[in-house]
Amino acid sequence: MKPELKEEINKIMLGIPERNRLAISSIDWAHVTKEIGEKYYLNEEELDLLMVETALVLLGLKDYDLFKLAIEDMGLSQKDIGGITKEAEEKIFNPISKKIIASIKKEAELNNTSWDKRVNFILSGGDYTNFIK
Amino acid sequence: MKKILPYIFILTIIVQLFAPFSVNIEKRGGVLYNTKKAEAVSPTNETNNPSDPKIYGEIEVGTLEIGPTSVKIPINILKAEQSTYVGFGNVTNNEFSVKVFILNEEGKEAKRIKPKNPLEKTLSLVETSLSFDFSNLEPNTKYEAKAALYYKVDLRLGGGGPQGEAIGRLQGEKVVSFTTPKEGEAAITQEVEGGVISADGENLSFSDDTFDCSIGNLRGCFAEFAYTIIFKPAAFLFGLTGKALDFTLMYSLDDKSYRSVFVVEGWGIVRDICNLFFIFILLYIAFKVVLGLGSGKSDPKSLIINVIIIGLLINFSLFATRLIIDASNILSRVFYNSETISFKSSSGADATLGSAGEIKFSEVLVQKVNPVSLLTQSGNIGYLGEKSENMTEALTEAERDQNIGSTVSRANQVSNDIPVGLGTFIIICFLTAAICIIGIVVFFNLTFVFIARVVMLWLAMILSPIAFFSHTTPELENLKFIGFKNWLKETASMAFVAPIFCFFLYIIITFLDSGLGITDAYRSPTGFEFVLRILIPFLFLSVLLMKAKDIAISMSGQAGKFVSDMGNKIAGTTIGLATGGAAMAMRGTVGAMGARMARSETLTNMEKKGGFRGLVGGTLRNAGLKVGQKSFDFRNTTIGEQAASGLGISGSVKKTMASGSKPGVGFLGNQEEKVRKVEKRQADLDKLKPKTENEKKREGLDRQQAELEVKISPVLEQAEKERDEAKENYVEKKERRDEADKKLKDAEKELEKAKGTASEEAAQQKVKEAEQVKAEADKKLAEADKKLETAKNNVSDIKNGAGAEIKDGKIEIKLEEGSYNTSNKNISQKLAEEIGKRYEKAENRKNSTSSAVASIDNSLNKAMDEKKRLSDIDKLKKEDDKEVEDKVQKVKSSFATTIGEAEAEKKKAESELGRLRLAPSLDEAAIKQAQDKVTQHEDRIKKLKDEETKTVLSTRIEAGKEVEEKRGKRTEKIKQLEGEIKSLGDAKKEAVAKNDEAEKEFEVASVNFESVQNAKKAAEKNGGYGKSLSEIRKESTSLSAKIKQDENKSKFARAKNWEGSTNNVFDYLSHGRVSNEQAQDQANKLYQSINKK
Question: Do B1037 and A125 count as a contact with CB atoms less than 8 A apart?
Answer without folding.
Answer: no
